[in-house]
Amino acid sequence: MLRFHTPFHGKRYIGDNRLKICHDSFYEAAPTAPGGCRIDQIPAEEVRTFEPDTIGGAAQWGFVQCPCCLHIAKESHD
Known about the structure:
The chain has one domain (13-77). It has helices at 55-60, 67-77; strands at residues 13-16, 21-24, 47-48, 64-65. The model has no long low-confidence stretch (mean pLDDT 88). By secondary structure, the protein is an alpha+beta fold. The protein is built from 2 helices and 4 strands; from the N terminus they run E-E-E-H-E-H. A hairpin with a 4-residue loop joins strand 1 and strand 2 (21-24).
């Protein structure tokens, strides 16, 4: 789910600077699921967005894709 408020600004890929993990807002796991994405719980000062707004843009900054988001994305494309 895209978030249009600060600090997310409608970006698809949201990074957590503490963990160097990048979440895909289109395929995030429900926060209530075990190991689910908790994008809304990332402190605002630790949120990182990327230009370009791609997984490649995140990788340039040393971020890896969240395993939960990656798993859901793969399932939806199979």
